[in-house]
Specification:
By secondary structure, the chain is mainly α. Helix content is about 80%, strand content about 0%.
Length: about 325
C-alpha cells in the first residue's frame, strides 16, 4: 500500500458508524501486512463519526456537486451580510432555506440506499440540517462538510445567520443643513389685501411650531442613535464572549480528541501484547503437557527397569545360595 489514499478514506467514511471501527481496523491490519507502517498509523488515527456526521459525509461523497453549490451560496451570503445588502440578503436567505431543504431530502435518499443505515424514523435529520446551516456561517464547518470527513454534527449560534438591519444614521452635517433650511412661510393669497398683523402672528407661531417639531425630530433621532449604539456594543460584546467560549470549547474538544487518540493507541498496543502473550501461554501449555507425558513415560520406564534389576538381583541371590549348598 503506497500511502493513505483519498479513495480509502472515502470508503471508510461511507461505512455506517457501527461498522466503522471494524472496517478501519481491518484496513490497519492490511497495511501492516503490506509493510506500510505509515499508512497503518494514519488509518489508526481516523475517528468514528456520529450518525449525523456520517449522513453529511454521505452527501459530500455521493453528491459533491450539491455540496459545492452550498459552499458557493454560503460565500455569497457572507458577502451580502458584510455589505448589508438587504434585498440581496433576503434573496440569498430564501435560497439557503430551499437548498438546505433539498439537501436534507437528498440525505434521506442516500441513507435509504445504504443497506446498513438506521431506519428513516431514527435518522437525526435535525442535526444534519443544523450542520448545513452552520456551514453557511462558519467557513471551517463548510470546508469540513465539503471534505466529507465530518466527525460530529455542528451548529451555529452567532450572528452570522441573522440578516442585519439596514440602518441609516443621521450625521451632524444633515442636522446643520436642516437648521439652515428656511421655514416655509405661507404665501400671499391671491385676490386678498396684504396680511394683517394677526396673520403675521399666526405665521410666526406656525414657524415656531415647525422649528420645535424639527428639534423634536432631531432629538428623537439622536436618542435612537444612542440606543442603537448601546445595542450594537452589547451585541458585539456578546459575540466576542461567545466566540471566546467557542475557542475555549474547541480547544478542550481538540485536547479531548488527542487524549482519546493516545488512549486508543495505547489500548491497541495492549491488545496486541495481550494477543502475543496469549499465544506464548498457549505454546507454554502445550510444552507443559508434552513434558508431563514425557515424565510419565520416563517414570514408567524407570519402574520397569528397577523391577528388572530387582528380579535379576533375586536370581543372582538364589544362584549363589544353590552353589554354596552344593559345595
Amino acid at each position: 500500500m503506497p500511502g493513505l489514499s483519498a479513495e480509502l478514506v472515502q470508503q471508510l467514511y461511507r461505512t455506517p458508524p457501527d461498522r466503522f471501527v471494524a472496517a478501519r481496523d481491518a484496513a490497519v491490519a492490511e497495511a501492516r501486512r503490506a509493510g506500510d507502517a505509515t499508512t497503518a498509523r494514519q488509518l489508526a488515527r481516523l475517528r468514528r463519526p456520529t450518525v449525523a456526521a456520517w449522513l453529511v459525509n454521505l452527501l459530500a461523497i455521493g453528491r459533491p456537486e450539491l455540496v459545492a453549490d452550498l459552499v458557493q451560496l454560503a460565500d455569497a451570503l457572507r458577502v451580502a451580510q458584510r455589505e448589508l445588502r438587504g434585498p440581496r440578503l433576503r434573496e440569498l436567505s430564501a435560497q439557503r432555506r430551499a437548498v438546505v431543504g433539498a439537501l436534507v431530502a437528498e440525505v434521506r435518499k442516500l441513507a435509504a440506499a445504504e443497506p446498513d443505515a438506521p431506519p428513516a424514523s431514527r435518522l437525526p435529520l435535525a442535526e444534519v440540517e443544523a450542520t448545513l446551516n452552520a456551514a453557511f456561517s462558519d467557513v471551517e464547518v463548510a470546508e469540513q462538510v465539503r471534505a466529507g470527513r465530518l466527525l460530529r454534527a455542528a451548529s451555529y449560534a452567532g450572528f452570522g445567520e441573522v440578516p442585519r438591519p439596514q440602518l441609516r444614521l443621521v450625521t451632524d452635517d444633515e442636522e446643520e443643513h436642516e437648521e439652515e433650511r428656511p421655514a416655509r412661510r405661507p404665501g400671499p393669497q391671491r385676490g386678498r389685501p396684504e396680511a394683517a398683523p394677526r396673520t403675521d402672528r399666526a405665521a410666526e407661531r406656525a414657524e415656531q411650531a415647525e422649528r420645535a417639531a424639527q428639534r423634536a425630530a432631531r432629538a428623537e433621532r439622536a436618542r435612537q442613535r444612542r440606543a442603537l449604539d448601546r445595542e450594537l456594543a452589547k451585541a458585539q460584546a456578546d459575540q466576542e464572549r461567545a466566540e471566546t467560549e467557542l475557542t475555549e470549547a474547541t480547544g478542550q474538544e481538540r485536547d479531548g480528541v488527542a487524549v482519546l487518540d493516545r488512549l486508543e493507541a495505547e489500548l491497541a498496543e495492549l491488545e496486541r501484547r495481550r494477543a502475543v502473550a496469549e499465544q506464548d501461554l498457549s505454546r507454554a501449555k502445550l510444552a507443559r503437557r508434552a513434558a508431563e507425558r514425557a515424565v510419565t513415560v520416563a517414570r514408567r520406564r524407570a519402574g520397569e527397569v528397577e523391577a528388572a534389576v530387582e528380579a535379576l538381583a533375586a536370581e543372582e541371590g538364589d544362584a549363589d545360595a544353590g552353589g554354596g549348598a552344593a559345595d
